Amino acid sequence: MQILQQVFGYPRFRGLQADIVAGAIAGDDALVLMPTGGGKSLCYQIPAIARRSNGQGLTIVVSPLIALMHDQVRALQEVGVAADCLHSALDYAQVQAVQSRAWRGETTLLYAAPERITTAHFLDFLDHLAQKGQLALFAIDEAHCVSQWGHDFRPEYRQLALLHQRYPQVPRMALTATADAITREDIIERLQLQQAQVYVSSFDRPNICYQVVEKADPRKQLLRFIEDEHPDEAGIVYCQSRKKVEETAEWLLQQGINALPYHAGLPADVRQRHQDRFLREEGLVMTATIAFGMGIDKPDVRFVAHLDMPKNIEGYYQETGRAGRDGQAADAWMTYGLADVVNQRRMIDDPQSQASEAYRQVMRAKLDALLAMAETTDCRRVRLLAYFGEDSSPCGNCDNCLNPPQTWDATQASLMFLSCIYRVQQKSDMHFGAGHLIDILRGKPTDKVLQYDHQNLSTFGIGEKWTQQEWGAVVRQLVARDAIVADAQAFNTLRLGPAAKNLLAGQEHIHLRLSERAERKGSGRMRRIAKTTPANRMHVDALDMSARNRLDALKAWRREVAQQNQLPAYVVFNDATLIAIAAQNPSGLGALSQISGVGQKKLDAYGSELLKVCGSVS
Ligand code: ADP
Ligand code: ZN
Question: What does the UniProt keyword field contain (predicted)?
Fold first, then answer.
């Protein structure tokens, strides 16, 4: 507790942190499952500091990415903790210097990549430390990398079992944000953690507001979302293809949004540069494929947007989880339309792929769960958490809770659509796309309708009362339910699917949300997070005018300090801390030290400057 308050400046532990820390200080092994942003780092950093000061030596942190190590080390140094890292970009002399410091007992935490740790040279070094009783703890971050079931398998992680075999007396802590049960079991087995205490936190991220919007003009929708809700704030925009990543980034730039592309097809140095800029500068939007993300510990990402739907809820949750690690309000926003459903289904059913039928079935079920979340008219968080095995009640912080959607009974329209496909096929022995079928149902005598004499079908004009958009929702729902199937080889023409039968037999009812446009008319901007935000977290919207001015001044000051010291801004102070300072306008150092995120070293280094900045704003 003392370390938490004095070094890190936080008043209290979050969730299971206190238990985890106590266990590690006592020397127990642990497997820690916490969602992204849950606060995993402190779980091993505090025991590392405690064990070092108890004379128990050095903590080794295994981490898969250089960028990640680097930032953690800088952040620790900023709060006055002796941390170092070893990675492939260091030369021999630098490695020697790092190891000498550790050997002399000057280092508290040493970060290293798994392949480094299992070299003979490094093991030799560890052997010597172990003989002196100077190995305090092994922390294995991103532990799901050890499992082929995880989403990021790294064979080098498998070697880490030898830490246990070689140094059985040294406690270990494995940490990950991956929830699913098979991966969990696999981690325990691969890392030989059978004796470890397993800590599973709730996967809820209460500060993230989930929104899914119907795809109309996705780029424009995205632009409006960024301009209205997140001007000059950092965010990630996920797209499925590399090409779309580049096009979207370029387009956003033209629209005056500071955007950068990132995907695996870009040269390594460009990727590195873009990632560094995203971490260090404020207000950048990274447009990326899913290649971007792991180890991006930037706490002030204010939104994650999906222009294309991910494959499953795990992916969606992982990606959206990168928003709002600092606990401040953040948005997960996705556009979603018929093409997404069709594309994802097609990838699973692709006859070219070698996948077994059993595998395809698992994938279909996973996709269905995500589709259900996208189409639902009730709380999205309840659906998400249920997927991870957690019960919850409506959250008050998703689009459906904030603006409960009107629904309409689309059963009749669905039947009309199915019979229209049937009639058209009967008449012309051909299949057509959604657009043409909707024209028939709405009674539009287009050239194509006339060409095929479809104005004489019994279904012509029977669906006039529904808008184009409402029909779009019907089609999407029918495809999602497999009642119709889109043929990739033939311009996405539609056929009746296996599930059509039950619908046609009148055995199912379909309720759909009323189309967004009609519903939103006049409702303006969505009301934001309020009820569920814990009292110790604040949102900028709640600040009065003079507090806002103070916040602007504090951010400008932070930018300057960050530049001078070549640090990411959030390492100086994160947004949550600046907002709290702006809101409370502390009268002196004593009051300032009470604010969450202001530890002793930062108080000494920046305290009087902060008070001056606040004082300068009237
Ligand atoms: P994870 O690694 O689980 O994604 P981090 O360790 O990066 O999460 O923590 C996320 C953010 O929460 C960081 O900015 C961290 O400083 C902050 N944090 C962690 N624990 C606490 C706490 N007990 N009180 C306040 N802030 C905390
Ligand atoms: Zn909700």
Answer: ATP-binding, DNA damage, DNA recombination, DNA repair, DNA-binding, Helicase, Hydrolase, Isomerase, Metal-binding, Nucleotide-binding, Zinc
C-alpha distance from residue 159 to each of 119, 141, 151 (Å): 10, 14, 18
Instruction: Identify the nearest ligand to the CA of 381 by its number.
Output: 2
- Residue 182 confidence (pLDDT) above 80: no
C-alpha span between 321 and 324 (Å, rounded): 8
In single-letter form, the type of residue at position 415 comes to L
Q: Is any ligand 1 atom within 6 A of the Cβ of residue 41? A: yes
Domains of the chain: 2-200 (3.40.50.300), 208-406 (3.40.50.300), 408-513 (1.10.10.10), 540-615 (1.10.150.80)
Of 90, 97, 137, 134, nearest to 116 by C-alpha is 90
Q: Can you give 503-543 as a three-state secondary structure string? A: HHCCCCCCEEECCHHHHHCCCCCCCCCCCCCCCCCCCHHHC
Pick the more confident residue, 523 or 164.
164
Which pLDDT belongs to residue 530?
A: 42
What is the model's pTM? 0.78
Determine whether the shortest distance from the Cβ of 36 to ligand 1 is under 6 A: yes
**Structural Rg of the chain based on CA atoms:** 27
Closest listed residue to residue 295, CA positions, set 175, 190, 387: 175
Nearest ligand (C-alpha, residue 42)? 1
CB 67 within 8 A of CB 271: no
Alpha-carbon gap, residue 486 to 499, rounded angstroms: 13
Q: How crowded is residue 388: how many other Cβ atoms within 10 Å of its Cβ?
A: 17
The arithmetic mean of pLDDT across residues 39-65, rounded, is 95
CA-proximal residue: ligand 1, atom 24 (nearest): 10
